[in-house]
Amino acid sequence: MPLAYFKNEFVPLDQATVSVATHGLNYGTGCFEGIRAYYNEAQGKLYILKLREHYERFVRSCSIMRIDPGHSVDEMITQTVELLRRQNFHQDVYIRPLAFKADPVIKVTLEGIHDEFAVFAVPMGDYLPTNGIHVMISAWRRLEDNAIPSRAKVTGSYVNTALAVTDAHLAGFDDAIFLTESGHVAEGSAANLFMVRDGTLVTPAVSDNILEGITRNIIMLLARDQGLPVSVRPIDRTELYVCDELFLVGTGVQISPVTRIDHRNVGPGTVGPVTEHIHSRYRQAVRGDVPEYLDWLTLVN
Ligand SMILES: Cc1ncc(COP(=O)(O)O)c(C=O)c1O
């Protein structure tokens, strides 16, 4: 039986429900996180990846949206570890914390409304193929920070993702890449992006309307540890057509190599060596097989 932590107790997931009049449901006034836990079969251990960093971002998102999750980062970490421990998972898991404006009021405001916090976890494997995907540049633009804060993980802002990814799927692509209103590359539909040009990993800056991704930080650290240069700078759309390698990164997608974009091959149209190298290091690290990166992980059992 899947469990949730909701209203300060552990309950069956199907009992963690809200009214249709809930403010967050009507107006998208919530913040959430997506966190992965990886099961290491050989060690018989479940590790949560970057748990503290996710809750720290959650608190920052909530602060932008004037939502009070009602718990400290340490308390939410403890509740999440306990949620997983109680379910005794022996597989990879996706964890979803959520805080939202909970009162049943018809009034568009962030003030004077009481907030709720919930967290639940479900088994999850790969979200996107990891052997090479075909993406399109979306006709939809990534939301502007001055319209809906792009560095906050706000529930309502995922309308932007849903529009882009649905168009991409209906047109036969695996995913979409957003440009900013100024025409520079922002990110994937729910993932950050790196391209490789002449041996340098390049990714857009946090001021290009991206979510400040935790996997993005991991990739930059892995690259530096491997002696690969990293550049944070604006990227033009057509640079993606002529780059050597391209990949999406995020908690959900993990690392997803892009081998075709807008009906053009990326490099030779196969997964490139830099992507392959970073990917294999990432896979080992998140499962607790790289001693120097064990401090990224929270052990559940
Ligand atoms: C819009 C968006 N960008 C980027 C990311 C990647 O962020 P992270 O690596 O922190 O999961 C996500 C979430 O996975 C996202 O929803």
TrEMBL record:
Belongs to the class-IV pyridoxal-phosphate-dependent aminotransferase family. One of its GO terms (molecular function) is L-leucine-2-oxoglutarate transaminase activity. The lineage of its organism: Bacteria, Bacillati, Bacillota, Clostridia, Eubacteriales. Acts on leucine, isoleucine and valine. Its cofactor is pyridoxal 5'-phosphate. Gene3D superfamilies: 3.30.470.10, D-amino Acid Aminotransferase, subunit A, domain 2. One of its GO terms (biological process) is isoleucine biosynthetic process. This is Branched-chain-amino-acid aminotransferase. It is an enzyme of class 2 (transferase). It comes from Sulfobacillus benefaciens. Coiled coil: none annotated. It comes from the Bacteria. Its EC number is 2.6.1.42. CDD domains: BCAT_beta_family (cd01557). Pathway: Amino-acid biosynthesis; L-valine biosynthesis; L-valine from pyruvate: step 4/4; Amino-acid biosynthesis; L-leucine biosynthesis; L-leucine from 3-methyl-2-oxobutanoate: step 4/4; Amino-acid biosynthesis; L-isoleucine biosynthesis; L-isoleucine from 2-oxobutanoate: step 4/4. It catalyses: L-leucine + 2-oxoglutarate = 4-methyl-2-oxopentanoate + L-glutamate; L-valine + 2-oxoglutarate = 3-methyl-2-oxobutanoate + L-glutamate; L-isoleucine + 2-oxoglutarate = (S)-3-methyl-2-oxopentanoate + L-glutamate. Keywords: Amino-acid biosynthesis, Aminotransferase, Branched-chain amino acid biosynthesis, Pyridoxal phosphate, Transferase.
